[in-house]
Here is the input.
Amino acid sequence: MSLRLSTVILPVDPWHEGGRAKWQRAEELGFHAAYTYDHLSWRTFRDGPWFGALPTLTAAATATERLHLGTLVTSPNFRHPVTLAKELITLDDVSGGRVTLGIGAGGNGFDATVLGQEAWTPKERADRFEEFLPLLDRLLTEGAVTERGTFYSADEARNIPGCVQRPRLPFAVAATGPRGLKLAARHGQAWVTTGDPKLYEEGTPEQSLEALRGQVEKLGKACVEIGRDVAELENVLLTGFTPDRNRPLESVDAFVDFAGRHRELGFTEIVLHWPIADSDFAADQAVFEKIATDAVAQLG
Here is the structure.
């Protein structure tokens, strides 16, 4: 099974002060894709520079030629399907059809309350996502959409000419629970996971592998239930949130070992955080670039 290697570039650098250079370097290094987080602010970066995801991706589209681009991940926390669809169609046009939408139900971070609302419960997030994603699917594939939902509605929303990619740009659905996995099976061209968050602090890499194996099996069952071949979905692992943390970035050999073990579980794409000094994503830039250029070939 072939393996794709991608990166996620957090939007912390002003475009003309290192931002553009990172995206261009990602293309030079041969990464399959470069993603960015779609938050309004995030964790320890809250009090520093943090730029918008879709404008950043639009700029990256004009600064690169081959690199696939996307969000990891967008959520309903501060988005509406109608406005998001318009922006995605525009981004897909600017990029010449190189965009993937990573999308999930959202969480309890700053985005959950920044618009003045109470943070949604896990059930409320799941309820909203279950309505958000099918409506977004329609908005990206139909010229005009009218829909009256409990949470999201559209009134003759026009999205002409639609996406460059047909029938629409691909969805990479982040999910681990049963309702999210069903949405991934029905609407996704890829599935995204970060592993089991309960294992991050005190779990072991072996326990993480078992948890991921269980998630892959549940995705397969969700596909069987709707008569879909699970092999139609790419399986994407966003690294940095398993008990391995940043150890796979310590050397090419360490990464090859990590990637090989996860490829055996069925993962087809592994995403590494671009190094950021003095953060949870600190790593040696030279080693990171060596992994980008050499590791996939070693995996065969």
